[in-house]
Design a protein that fits this description.
By secondary structure, the protein is α+β, with helices and mostly antiparallel strands. The chain is built from 13 helices and eight strands. Pfam families: BCDHK_Adom3, HATPase_c.
Amino acid sequence: MFVPGLSRFGRHLSQVTVSQARLQEFIRAELSYFAAQHTQALSLEQIVDASTPGKVARLVHKEIPFRFAARIRHIEAVEGWEKQEELRQLHKIFLDSFSELRLTEPPGTEECSLTVSDLTEYTEVIRSVRKRHMPVVALLAEAIRKMNHKDAWMEGDAFQSWADTFLVSRISTEMLTSHYMAVVDWHDSASEASELLGSDHIGIVDTKCNPGRICEQAAKAVQSMYANATESSAQQVADKLQVEVHSHSDSGSEDSTIAFSYIPKYLFYIVQELIKNSARATVEACKLDGRRRLPDRPIIVTVCADQKQIAIRIADQGGGISCGKSEEIWSYLFSTSMQPFQEYLESGSPLAGWGVGLPLGRLYARYLGGSLQLMNVPGTGVDAYLFLRRIDPSSAEGVPRASISDSVAPV
């Protein structure tokens, strides 16, 4: 619902001076309207189809306000949210971004004819929104941690549903804004991204994503975490931690490269989190049982595929999950690592620390039509199984649609 005179990008509209009170009244009305609508989960088909600057700008402009409005109401549905510092910050982040987006609109009416230069100001708005939302997952995780040490403000199952809905919406909006920036960069002749991405990319989607290579990159990233740690004991782990990656095609050959259409950074985040959990468990197991050293307990990553799906197994020898903890590991209230909050804010991964990583990783997998399962072998270790569907970006029938919505969940 566009309001003439308030948009920065309406080329033929005169500037209108509006009082702060009237502006706030307008935003409240817009918020009520958008929050009342039901949103559908995005499909990879919609992302791939938005392959030009004009198309992706229109998709972002259409979809994101609904999701931000829903998140604002989602926070307000929590009793006493105003007394929780992190929830107040989250509320302000979403309200500021919702307001900024509703006071802007991509110029023109022919979506496919827009160029990168036409969208210069709108791109800066999207860039501003992305920067503002960087600490969202961290703030939510900190709110969870604080509330977990006080009286429960929500029953376990209801809380899981609330957090799932919040984070699914985060996935969809982050996907949209990331795709917008990738498409704009690709079409910007002055951008290095157009040379770096190559013709295999459609925005953030890599049509020839190599899961084996991504697993290797994730393994190196985890080893670097230990190498760059301040504790000397952690630095020693980096030299001894063994992660082996083996890829097998549907023919069973390790020489054949597996490639499929996917969003590489999301696959990297999920695999990195799984390897990190395995590494932590393996290190702890070595402390408890010194008979087998770290090099004797390699983490084995196996990547295989057939014509319909990609499967990644990450097997460790970290002793397995303690009795009674198998279900808790999927809870946002459970964590084996308390990463310092400031370090979390500065982390490059949206899955790092605070116990949010594993359940959020499962949401990422599910959102794009896959699944993440853990098989506990008591006294030995854990096998994590990540299944991802092959898709054909050119075929609507082959594109998975998420089965989880990001509208407001009951509280």
